[in-house]
């Protein structure tokens, strides 16, 4: 019954009611990432403002509840922060996901993203959770270039 | 039709894995036989015994073990030949799997070594496949078209999941060199109308290949009666081990084809600048073959024959009828494939509204111990045809019970509750 604990209420809420979904203008960079093993995909746009402030993260894609909810949670966390702040959250999230369930998540850094801690116990699903976050990191780096 | 002699509980006892528990005390409910089947004790023991007592290389060793091992390996060929109704044992080529069998035939075309006009291929020639093929019956032909400049064409699939024959006469024409289609779809369960396609193929002088990976394990298949030119199948889906499969081809065609892989045992004589080749089937079996796996496949067809392919087919038909009825009661479930029993096997692929197949599979496995396959099942073009990225697939076999179908339905209701 460990999978049930993976499907936290917060994840299911974001899956059913995704935040910030849909591609919007203007944007500095757009990336398209796919997960070839399961077919999940995401297109993500990032708009940075003065002082590296993240003005908008917009996305569209298809995939399982984990991949889609991860994009929605990312939107909530990123908008309003600075690019550098969010990249350190991405690093912490990546560390948690790749920790095989052995990493104690830093809730102060991760906020709602801590709900994905259970996913780390399922190696086959880690890439689902990371899809949007890796796309975001890629888009931010391109926006800053 | 009920067959009193078919005792599924007795059959299940032959498969040790079916009585194991998964972590957390979950029972195993294995509904992924279309992916790979489980193995009975008879197969496991035959392989163990060969390794323990009879193993040595085949063909080239003159000592006692060489004779025993060769007899077992070639004996497996006799068994497989009889099992699929091959007119001659020499028409059975052992391959690694069905993919290798399909590639072997594809590489015969457009090969500069080849002199037979039936296997010559270039711009203007056509290859015909279908939209419901497994990638293993798509990619080898794409590669062939790229090598030779030939044109790749394909049958469409109807909304019901049947081969669309409305274009048959135009699609298969005098430019067609080879038609290669699934005997039974690994996603839809559809059994294709081979006779209809074959009649047109014979009018045009093309050749017909069948990917029978999903039919040979589940139905009595007689290659002579089917009338095709090549039939590919694989051991691991028919209670045999992985690493062994088969190609049946008409002797006259196999003899006319150029070799595929070069190496030991496929030769007659070798000089530094040229070679002559062994007669079929050994011409296509370069190198030390999967000896123990072939012995295992021989034991697998013995096992299936001891139960009877008619009885296995009838059992799966009962299970499929039961499952087709049961899935109708699941709200939001869309079956991808024929909803009736006519010309279909025990493979049910479906989508659940609002729930991604990976989430369906995860909960079925983790909560109920139900093993299904999720994704595109190596048939991405077919999923694109239906406008979906993935499906959940339950596939049945001789050891599947109605209780297991009930567990699947219960599991699907639970999945819907989680995502409701």
TrEMBL record, chain A:
Residues spanning the membrane: none
GO molecular function: iron ion binding; iron-sulfur cluster binding
GO process annotations (BP): iron-sulfur cluster assembly
Top-level taxon of origin: Bacteria
A family per Pfam: NifU_N
InterPro entries, A to Z: NIF_FeS_clus_asmbl_NifU_N
NIF system FeS cluster assembly NifU N-terminal domain segment(s): 6-128
UniProt protein name: Nitrogen fixation protein NifU
Higher taxonomy: Bacteria, Bacillati, Actinomycetota, Actinomycetes, Streptosporangiales
UniProtKB/TrEMBL annotation, chain B:
Domain of life from the UniProt record: Bacteria
Molecular function terms, GO-annotated: cysteine desulfurase activity; lyase activity; pyridoxal phosphate binding
Keyword Lyase: yes
GO biological process: cysteine metabolic process
InterPro entries linked to this entry: Aminotrans_V_dom, Cys_dSase_SufS, PyrdxlP-dep_Trfase, PyrdxlP-dep_Trfase_major, PyrdxlP-dep_Trfase_small
Swiss-Prot/TrEMBL cofactor(s): pyridoxal 5'-phosphate
Aminotransferase class V domain span: 29-408
The EC number(s) this enzyme carries: 2.8.1.7
Reaction equation(s) it catalyzes: (sulfur carrier)-H + L-cysteine = (sulfur carrier)-SH + L-alanine
Keyword terms of this UniProt record: Lyase, Pyridoxal phosphate, Transferase
Family note: Belongs to the class-V pyridoxal-phosphate-dependent aminotransferase family. Csd subfamily.
UniProt protein name: cysteine desulfurase
């Amino acid at each position: 019954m460990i999978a049930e604990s993976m499907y936290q209420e917060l994840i299911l809420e974001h899956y059913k009611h995704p935040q910030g979904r849909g591609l919007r203008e203007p944007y500095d960079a757009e990336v398209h990432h796919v997960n070839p093993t399961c077919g999940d995909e995401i297109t993500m746009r990032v708009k940075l403002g003065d002082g590296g402030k993240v003005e908008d993260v917009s996305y569209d894609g298809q995939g399982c509840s984990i991949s889609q909810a991860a994009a929605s949670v990312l939107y909530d966390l990123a908008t309003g922060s600075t690019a550098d702040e969010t990249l350190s959250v991405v690093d912490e999230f990546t560390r948690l996901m790749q920790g095989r369930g052995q990493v104690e998540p830093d809730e102060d850094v991760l906020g709602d993203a801590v709900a994905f801690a259970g996913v780390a116990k399922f190696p086959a699903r880690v890439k689902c959770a990371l899809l949007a976050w890796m796309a975001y990191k890629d888009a931010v780096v391109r926006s800053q270039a | 039709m009920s067959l009193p002699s078919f005792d599924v509980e007795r059959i299940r006892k032959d498969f040790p894995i079916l009585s194991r528990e998964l972590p957390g005390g979950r029972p195993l409910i294995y509904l992924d036989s279309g992916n790979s089947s489980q193995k009975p004790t008879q197969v496991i023991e035959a392989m163990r015994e060969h390794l323990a007592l009879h193993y040595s290389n085949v063909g080239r060793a003159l000592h006692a073990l060489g004779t025993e091992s060769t007899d077992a390996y070639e004996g497996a060929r006799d068994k497989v030949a009889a099992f699929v109704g091959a007119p001659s044992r020499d028409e059975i080529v052992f391959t690694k799997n069905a993919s290798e069998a399909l590639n072997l035939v594809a590489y015969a075309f457009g090969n500069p070594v080849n002199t037979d006009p039936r296997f010559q291929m270039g711009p203007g020639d056509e290859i015909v496949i279908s939209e419901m093929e497994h990638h293993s019956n798509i990619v080898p032909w794409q590669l062939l078209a790229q090598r030779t400049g030939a044109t790749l064409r394909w049958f469409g699939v109807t909304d019901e999941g049947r081969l669309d024959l409305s274009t048959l006469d135009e699609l298969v024409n005098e430019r067609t060199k080879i038609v290669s289609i699934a005997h039974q779809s690994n996603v839809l369960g559809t059994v294709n109308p081979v006779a209809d396609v074959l009649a047109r193929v014979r009018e045009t002088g093309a050749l017909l290949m069948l990917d029978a990976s999903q039919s040979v394990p589940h139905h009595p298949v007689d290659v002579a009666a089917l009338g095709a030119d090549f039939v590919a199948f694989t051991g691991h889906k028919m209670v045999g081990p992985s690493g062994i499969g088969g190609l049946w081809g008409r002797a006259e065609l196999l003899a006319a084809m150029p070799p595929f892989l070069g190496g030991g045992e496929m030769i007659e004589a070798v000089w530094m600048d040229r070679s002559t080749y062994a007669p079929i089937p050994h011409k296509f079996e370069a190198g030390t073959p999967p000896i123990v796996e072939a012995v295992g496949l021989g034991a697998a067809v013995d096992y299936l024959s001891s139960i009877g392919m008619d009885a296995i087919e009838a059992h799966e038909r009962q299970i499929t009828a039961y499952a087709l009825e049961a899935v109708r009661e699941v709200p939001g479930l869309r079956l991808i494939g024929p909803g009736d029993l006519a010309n279909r096997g025990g493979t049910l692929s479906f989508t659940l509204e609002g729930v991604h197949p990976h989430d369906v599979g995860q909960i079925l496995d983790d909560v109920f111990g139900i093993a299904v396959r999720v994704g595109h099942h190596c048939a991405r073009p077919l999923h694109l045809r239906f406008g979906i990225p993935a499906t959940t697939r339950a596939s049945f076999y001789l050891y599947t019970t109605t209780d297991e179908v009930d567990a699947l339905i219960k599991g699907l209701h639970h999945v819907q509750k989680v995502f409701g």
